[in-house]
Amino acid sequence: MNALAAVAREVVGLFVDDGWLAAAIVAVVALAGLAAALVPNVYLPAGLILLVGCLGVLVANVLAAVRR
Amino acid sequence: MGGVAQIGPVMTAVFLASLVEAVEALTIILAVATVRGWRPAGVGALAGLISLAVIVLALGPALEIVPLRLLQLAIGILLLLFGMRWLRKAILRAAGVLALHDEEKAFAATTAELRREGAAAAQRADWLAGVASYKAVLLEGLEVVFIVIAVSAGRGLLLPASVSALAACALVAVAGLIVYRPLARVPENTLKFAVGVMLSAFGVFWTGEGLGVPWPGEDLAIVVFVALFLATGLVSISLVQRSRTATAR
Fold first, then answer.
1. ipTM for this model
2. Which of B5, B69, B103, B130 could form a disulfide with B219 if both were Cys (CB 3.0 to 4.6 A apart)?
3. Contact B240/A63, CB-based, under 8 Å?
């Protein structure tokens, strides 16, 4: 049972290492989804939010990691 | 069938990622073989491969019943989480914030642990060694399986992606058997950086497609995303290094 829990923890760890980063990525995707839902048939703003948001989250996260 | 603009990045990303994971699994298997012999190492690795095959066989048909848009969105988000995690770690390692992953050190730590466990419970030593080998193959293999499925699902690229992964694993296995020591010279962080860049680019592309975004240039947008993530990664390394230098003064 312990081994199974350890494997499950490691599987989750494949995607979530730094909780801040994972939460920020999910927030960016949610924001892009919201933009796509609010402005139907004009999807490019959602794409821009997604792309720029992910790049911004990456830079902000590594800089925050250095300060930590 | 996937576009030409996708086959190259897909095969490269899968090959490099599989190379990294196979090197990490090989280190543990070699440690087990060194301490307890090839039998528990081989049996554990084989059991790990069988478990992976079962997971792939169970997961494959299940993926076919999921609507494409939902599949793209879910896999896109997982790719973003997975790829940006690798990219973040590779940037911090390249900038000297985190220590580089050292296969020699991992090998020494695993052999020391197995020797300790063997001394404490001699009769269970082979079993524990086999479990270590099994876990290494299963966990590293799961990452390979995820990457293969994630970058090829719904695109008809499962075959080239699988061939890429198998080629990388075979290459590492042959190299490991020949040198019979951890492959410490593989530039693991550079590979992880490259894979992180590509998986993050695929993640943005498929998450966008899942949301209904019609990317300009269609599949060619992936190449632009790769370039943007690469540039951002390199700039981030430089920013972190400068920030550390300024703090040290």
1. 0.89
2. B5
3. yes
